[in-house]
Amino acid sequence: MTAVALAHPSTGRTTLAVPGAHCAGCMSKIERGLAALPGVTGARVNLSARMVSVNHEAGLDRRGLVQALADLGFEAQARVDGPARADSAVRQFLAPLAVAGFAAMNVMLLSVSVWSGADGSTRDLFHWLSALIGVPAIAYAGQPFFRSAWGALRKGRTNMNVPISLGVLIATGLSLYETMVHGRHAWFDGALMLLTFLLAGRALDAMMRDRARAGVDALISQAPQGATVIGEDGTLTWQATDALRPGMVLRVVAGERLAADGEIVSGTSQFDQSLLTGESRPIAARAGDQVLAGTLNLTGPVDVRVSHTGHDTTLAEIVRLMEASTQNRSRYVRLADRASRLYAPAVHTLAALSVVGWLIGGASLYQALVIGVAVLIITCPCALGLAVPVAQVVSCGALMRAGIMVKDGSALERIALVDRALFDKTGTLTMSRPEPDPKVLASFDPVAASVALALASHSGHPLSRALAAALTAAGHRAAEIDTVEERPGDGVFARWLGLDVALRRPEAANGIAVSLHIEGRPPWLIPYDYHLRPDYAQALAELRDLGVEASIVSGDNVAAVAEVARMTGLSAQANASPGDKQALIGRLQAAGRRVLMVGDGLNDGPALAAADASLAPGSASDVGFQAADLVYTRDSLLSIPQAVRAARATTRVVKQNFALAIGYNVLAVPLAMAGLVTPLLAAVAMSTSSLVVIANSLRLVRAAR
User: Fold this and answer.
1) Do residues 243 and 306 make contact, with C-beta atoms less than 8 angstroms apart?
2) C-alpha count within 13 angstroms, C-beta hemisphere, residue 104
3) CA 196 to CA 102: how far, in whole Å?
């Protein structure tokens, strides 16, 4: 049985939940701040889970880490080390977004009346109504920004939320002042529009990160919550997984998953470990064999002496591999967002220069503040913030209509760059279910077919179910058999008309097969095959046209993989464990290749997470389904080149959006600093730039053609 090497870190590791981490600037600040602490050897932030893993010397007090994060402006809580589910960040933005959007629409209707010529007491009434709607809405909807900004300022630091909060609060204060002194202008609508667009961007970003994190959550769900333990006096008690210890003996019945790694001490059974090792056939195991946590006992009860539990199991190691790979992706995102660090100081400097410059030039404090607010609002990075998520959402919608579900929006950036594709075999290049050779079945006489159907119908083994389905579809009827016995690891045995009959494991076979025995007759060998998907040739040809070189990496045996490699013309690697697949991807990436992994099982989980981008078919296991960036639900490999083309189109539109957003700032900021733009016009200009970016992104509606 193949196993993944276990890691035994010599230093301590602490996992902390940091709900306030939401951007690349937060990530950089946390990692640099913690790494500077004595005794800390490294810190890694996972933005998708909003957690930070800290490697440190053994014995380091966790309270010191929590306090250090508090000094950096982030609230933190220690979590139990190891896999843990994180809360979604979307919910905290939904209610403020709804309030800001609803209030903005109503205030804008009142503003239209003012713009249309309302004057005097009518204008004052509309301004007061706008204040009644806008001030409470701003106070509530702006809390995500106000809290973050206050937390940073209290520690003598700044972040992107500081200029946003300043712009909103000063605009609101000036609007109230204008309302009270019967002034002509109020900018409640601008402040609310600003909050609406910002909150929409944050919610979209959180949704994408939730989808990226779902892969690890699904893998964790494969672990059972407990197991039945045999006591020294023979009593059976159920104990939670956390209470299991090496040396305990577990009773694992058929249909139950193992809660720990261990050695079988009594009993014989077959185990479905395809999700762990890639082996498509159920594996027979008996006393003395090693079995792994997460694998499914298929046929008979066994007693297992525990060797590894909890974080030391193979399943836990795969979880760690996937989490590490996810964090590697975050570094990629961090590179793309690094420019955002310059935003806050740049905006503060421009606004301050505007206020000071106009004061020196003889303007009143009120005029100077209005110009400063206009600069703060007009430089709001809404267009920049929407450039990526809106394009991704439109493209994801187009792909969804084409039967391709995108689970991680940032994957579109990565899949656009791939030049190397690795295919798992079973369930990916081939259909997911084995099928008996139809030529052999056609050679059966009616007696052999009826006996084979009768034997197969008495077993729940996947090969028996496939054989029974094929014979039933061919119109055969089952024979009357008796004294049926299914022997784990050997097959189904029975009596028919006084003769011994059996459907059993063959003595030798080149690939997957079963053997039909009828006393007095020569045995029939029934080979099985996983048929290639019908459009594999066209899909591989389209990938070649896109400049993507393909090959096979599979956990199946050499004979099974060689046949598929011969038919597709691809190079192949067989008997590959999850670690082997991940190592292959690492070597290709070290050679400068951008790797696309296409797989469907738990054994592909680390590889799917480690690759630059990954796809899984809709027939994939829950873990393979969740670990992949994209899932194609149509039973067609043409979805793969289709996804690559759509991703490349998305990347082109994202670059255009960045050019539009940067061009807007280059033109608008000087006008605002020159006093030619009011806060309202600044909000309109900011919103217009966002609408232009959205309109450009809508061209991706047909990206998945």
Assistant:
1) no
2) 23
3) 9
The first and second tokens of residue 306, run together, are 């525990």
**Positive or negative torsion for Cα 308, 310, 315, 321:** negative
Helix (H, G, I), strand (E, B) or coil at 45: strand
Distance, CA of 599 to CA of 275 (rounded, Å): 11
Amino acid symbol at 434: P
Strand partners, 263: 290, 305
Q: Considering the candidates 424, 529, 580, 600, report the single residue annotated as catalytic.
A: 424
Structure tokens at 476: 């055969």
Tell me the chain's radius of gyration from C-alpha atoms: 32
For residue 91, what are the contacts with CB-CB under 8 A and spacing of at least 6? Answer: none
Residue type (1 letter), 488: P
In 3D, which of 203, 219, 208 has the Cα closest to residue 324?
A: 219
Question: Reduced to 3 states, what is the DSSP secondary structure of residue 636?
Answer: coil
CA distance 254 to 436: 25
- How far is 176 from 180, CA to CA, in rounded Å? 6
Closest CA to 398 of 698, 64, 52: 698
Q: Which amino acid is at 656?
A: Q
Intra-chain end-to-end CA distance of the chain, in Å: 44
Task: With beta carbons less than 8 A apart as the criterion, state whether 195 and 208 touch.
Answer: no
Element (H, E) at 497: none
424 among known catalytic residues = yes
Query: Mind listing the pLDDT tens digit for each residue in 306-363?
Result: 888 877 777 776 666 555 555 544 443 444 455 555 666 677 788 888 888 898 888 8
Q: In angstroms, rounded to a whole number, what is the distance separating the alpha carbons of residues 396 and 452? A: 48
Are 365 and 359 within 8 A, CB to CB? yes
What the block records as the tokens of 128 is 């007061």
Sheet with 290-291: strands ordered across: 236-240, 226-230, 249-252, 302-308, 261-266, 290-291
3-state secondary structure at position 299: coil
572-573, strands of its sheet edge to edge? 404-406, 630-632, 613-617, 595-598, 420-423, 549-553, 572-573
Distance CA 615, CA 597 (A): 6
Q: Is 420 exposed, middle or buried (0-12, 13-18, 19+ CB in 10 A)?
A: buried
Is the model's pLDDT at 249 over the cut of 80? Answer: yes
Q: What is the pLDDT of residue 584?
A: 92
**How would DSSP label each residue in 68-96?**
HHHHTT---EEE-SS--PPPPSSHHHHHH
Q: Which run of H or E residues covers position 170?
A: helix 161-180
What token pair was written down for 663?
């061009």
> If you count them, how many residues does the chain have?
705
| Whole-prediction pTM | 0.59
Tokens read off for 589 = 């990436």
Q: Which amino acid is at 630?
A: L
- Residue 498 CB neighbour total at 10 angstroms: 7
What's the pLDDT band for 215 if we cut at 50, 70, 90? low
Strands in 499-504's sheet, in edge-to-edge order, are: 435-436, 524-529, 513-518, 499-504, 491-496, 482-487
CB 18 within 8 A of CB 76: yes
Distance CA 447, CA 430 (A): 32
Question: Per the structure block, which two tokens stand in for 92?
Answer: 């905290």
DSSP 261-287: EEEEEE--EEEE-HHHH---SPEEE-T
Residue 644 has pLDDT above 90, yes or no: yes
Going by DSSP bridges, is the β-strand pair 77-79/236-240 parallel, antiparallel, or unpaired? Answer: unpaired
DSSP string, 94-114: HHHHHHHHHHHHHHHHHHHHH
Nearest to 131 by CA among 87, 181, 94: 181
Q: How far apart are CA 593 and CA 573, in angstroms?
A: 18
How far is residue 578's CA from residue 593's CA, in Å, rounded to a whole number? Answer: 20
**With contact defined as beta carbons under 8 Å apart, do 163 and 344 qualify?**
yes
Chain-centre distance for alpha carbon 423: 19
* CB-CB contact of 213 with 48 (8 Å): yes
Tokens for 627? 């670990």
